[in-house]
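Task card 7
Instruction: Convert sequence to structure tokens.
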Amino acid sequence: MKKISIFVLVFSTLIFSQFNRGNPRFQNSPTFLVNKIFYSELYISSQDSGKAFFTYKIPLNRLLFEKSQDKYKAKFRISLEIFDNKNNIIQREFDEKSVEVKSYENTKSSLLYVDGVIPIAYSKDISKIIPRFSDVFSEKEYKGKLININKIKNGKLFLSPIVVKKKINKCKDSDAYELANFGGDFPFSENKYAILLPTNNLETDELFIKIISDGKTVLNKSITKSFKGEIDLVLCNGKVLLKKEDTNEKYNFFILDNFENNLGEGRFKIKISTTSDFLDSDTFLKKITWFDKPFSLRDSELAIKNLKFIEDNSVIDDILDYESFQYVKLLQKYWEKYDPSPKSVYNPIMEEYYQRIDYSIKHFTPISRKSGANTDRGKIYIKFGKPNNIKRTSNTYGQVTEIWNYKKVNKEFVFIDKYGIGDFSLITG
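Output:
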């Protein structure tokens, strides 16, 4: 009975204590699961329009910032070398930006980005594009992923699906969709996304969709929600947008939303047709990636062992007795009963728990190199989250003391660094 009450307390604090994106743990999140300097994708408007758009997204922690008075500044340059079939450079395009933030913590964030779009004069002579990223202050240059025009996947009836945020944006009084802008991948997160399915068939008013994951059809439906327009991307208020109100009606953009609930990380197929029998259809391979996945959750065996802060060893041992290939699903199953959004594969409580472990390791590891998650401060942080108030003083022996106060659970914890090595011991609480 005692174990159940403890877990209920931990679970309630995971939900209600400091469960919000303003927490330091989100501003200090580890680097991306996919270790890239920047994310990019090329969108070709149409063969006869002569327009294409190179989009990019750069996390702030990939930039070198310099402090200037009370602000932090960075500067970078994106350059494109555009080649023809004979490997000759026929175009060069550039985009240079300055970034300014007020907080040092923001300079380390992998969840804050700089987005951009570079228009390209498109022609059939273009065979490949090589993007490069240059950080002005560090003077370092990185080559991006080569874009082979011939390998850009478009179907007979449809262009490649475009991943966008579900919420409609405004740009100069026009409605627009914000591109997710993660190189075409679908982010696994609590945010809501949709997929735009462009077809040059302006007459059709219904599409038939199948989504296949792990060999299973997880979605089979028809959609009618759509708008007509062109792929004409703009940068508005720092976001790459596709406007809904476009007088040049080249495509019919069908909107697929509310589909990701049953999809976890990994690849899936999306099959699109204008007929219910799918005899004439296009198939595209897409990917769901958890870009800011907690480090302590990336190794499923370690993640199971890290349940030790809230669970009995016998429960952990029972899970580990299974074959290792089953660990991911078993871990998801363990957290299902505490999931506030059971209709979605994404579990915010599980993420919150492992983000707290990451934060503890990063901020509470003492000089002895003992894991910060195993320290007294780490254990309290994992259970209760960020304190409402931290008071740091020293006692009569010169030992540093920290007092953590949690208002919602009416608790106070006192820690003392007895040996001056950053390993604070819990004295009261």
